[in-house]
Amino acid sequence: MKYYRIMPGGKSAHLNDCLKGEFIGIDFDLKEELSGFVNYEWEAFKKKFKPYYKKLNPEKSNIAIGLHAGSVHAVCVYLSKGDIILCPDGNGVYHVGEISSDYYFVKGEVLPHRRKVNWHSKTVNRIDMSKALQGSTGSGLTHCDLSGHGEEIEKLIDGNRLPSIVSTDKTIEDPTEFALEKHLEDFLVKNWKSTSIGKEYDIYELDGVSVGQQFPSDTGPLDILAISKDRNTFLVVELKKGRVSDNVVGQIQRYMGYVKEDLAEPHQNVKGIIIGSEDDIRIRRALSVTTNIEFYKYKVNFKLHQ
User: Fold this and answer.
1) Which sign, positive or negative, has the C-alpha torsion 253, 225, 238, 289?
2) Which of these, 97, 102, 165, 194, has the minimum number of CB atoms within 10 Å of its CB?
3) Which of 33, 53, 154 is nearest to 105 (CA)?
4) CB of 23 closer than 8 Å to CB of 100
């Protein structure tokens, strides 16, 4: 079972239409039926859909086309019957639904590319989510994958809050570091402009909306995607989150490869930064043979005053 957060229109503008009509859908100014695209795995879909979408929207950047293609694929192709979606109302409440049909098209209506949804009577409050899930759902993108939080989402639907951050990732070596650095991600985003990285890079925005946190890729979400102030260099920021060093280096390299191949224009470069509490011999060895990934160490200071 998959779990996704989906925005029904910009800032969930069409949520009430979706609830009344028992559907979820997308638009992106695609006026014709997409049945010819829906039977493809991501790579095949991307290869066919992107030129089609670029022809319709020649002014769109590679990154906008990639994001829109990802959302179309997620809603129209990737989601299966029985998968769970969460849709925010903009006031901290998430409506929960279960996908109940294949793709269909309704010409001339809002969000014409649709899936039928059985909406639950139970809603989920953002305040009851762990910080990790809040971070994952906070993206300004049309869709984001929440499958890594499936256990927590099921408990929230049942009315039970998780007492702490849950991770089933078997690559986690240090659960305490994992929990701390999930909070650090949100702190870093909120205080980005006051960091040394923020002096050179901006968290990526699309049409004025920040989309750089938990940015989706074909190998999982990037912690932070940023771009240099001269727009010539993409920066992938990955927090170590208690993971094995070999795994986090391999992961950021995969993310950087995705950005280079799918998002960057020919004149744009891609760099990476790994942030953790401590480095070790494995991460130093791995980074010694790369020229475009750096390691940043963070420190946490606590002060008590009487």
Assistant:
1) positive
2) 194
3) 33
4) no
Residue ranges with strand state E in 162-268 = 201-203, 205-206, 209-210, 213-215, 222-228, 233-239
Can you give the residue range of the structural domain that contains 81? 3-157
CA distance 191 to 212: 14
Q: Please tell me whether residues 145 and 34 are part of one structural domain.
A: yes
Q: Which of 89, 92, 100, 78 is nearest to 23 (CA)?
A: 100
Residue 51, in any domain of the structure: yes
DSSP for 199-215, written as a single string:
GTEEE-EETTEE--EEE
| Co-location of 141 and 186 in the same domain | no
The answer to whether residues 137 and 186 belong to one domain is: no
Residue 121 is given by DSSP the state E
**213 and 148 belong to one structural domain:** no
CATH number at residue 122: 3.10.590
- Asked whether residue 302 is domain-assigned, the answer is no
List, for residues 42-80, the tens digit of each pLDDT value.
989 999 999 999 999 999 998 999 999 999 999 999 999
Domain total of the chain: 2
266, 148: one domain:
no
Burial of 82 (0-12, 13-18, 19+ CB in 10 A): exposed
Do 201 and 142 belong to one domain? no
What are the backbone angles phi and psi of residue 263, rounded to the nearest 5°? -115, -40
Residue 217 CA to residue 182 CA, distance in Å, equals 19
Measured CA to CA, the distance from residue 157 to residue 219 in angstroms comes to: 27
